[in-house]
């Protein structure tokens, strides 16, 4: 099996020497066990780093054909860097595993990934078995992230980041999704096929610092939701309908007060209109939003289906003799 590893790197000069060393050992170990073929490769994608990352990748490539390099013209963010690496591997590999440059994802899980692939899985998710080593803050913000995502209609695999195996076929299907705002964690589950999960222990970053501070993480979550689902728009209509019921209750309440004579003249009509018009406006916005949501989904040109297997017979290839 020809395996490619795809690793996005942004200002990773602190970790690359060690990462490449460990990966080289791992890859030759896998080769010796006969799990992967000799022409398996590791692709480092330099996501417009400002430090010596690209020089290091160049040196690695010259030393050893195991390492390939892809350099982006500027920093485009982890997801796009990953995508660039995947597209470089697409027509070459039988399967691709994506992982981070800091090797927080346990590389010894690769064996399990390959086993699942050999057992027929086309998509294998690496799932963190625990978050013991994460800080309290990171653990809880991450948890909130997954909860919020699924509430807002972006279905992501719990505790799965971007450590995953994609078969060649799954990879080709992924590129059928033409949307520019591609949120991989949300799109990959949409591909389908046989999927499986590998559990692993996530380690601490061994050098350098995280490129994902809270600000980037929030932006990432927002990206994920707005690029995957139109549920936030639907919430407007729901809110409008709730407001409508509130306003009906209010009308009754204010009219009762009006007729008991327990009110200031003019106030009833004023307050009732405010509630009713508010509800009306929210519902109208929601309806418009519903259409915008449709337009939005249409522009994405997502594949309507992906065929996994086709069963037919040869004879139907002959031309029919209608004259
Ligand atoms: N990364 C990238 N471009 C960016 C930010 C990060 O390619 O703009 C890469 C980074 O080099 C690493 C991976 O994405 O390989 C994950 O980043 P990091 O380890 O800093 O995130 P954390 O593990 O702290 O969430
Ligand atoms: Mg990391």
- N-to-C order of helices and strands: EHEHEHEHEHEHHEHHH
Distance between the termini: 50 Å
At the first level of CATH, what is the class of the largest domain?
Answer: Alpha Beta
From the alpha-carbon coordinates, what is the Rg to the nearest angstrom? 27 Å
CATH superfamily of the largest domain: Spore Coat Polysaccharide Biosynthesis Protein SpsA, Chain A
Counting structural domains, the number is: 2
* CATH fold-level topology of the largest domain: Spore Coat Polysaccharide Biosynthesis Protein SpsA, Chain A
Tell me roughly what share of residues is in helical segments.
40-55%
Tell me about the biggest sheet?
7 strands, mixed
* SS field, number of helical segments: 10
Attached small molecules: uridine-5'-diphosphate, magnesium ion
Uncertain ranges: none
Which structural class best describes the helix and strand composition?
A: alpha/beta
| CATH architecture term of the largest domain | Alpha-Beta Complex
Mean pLDDT: 86
Assembly level: single chain
Give the overall shape, derived from the CA principal axes: elongated
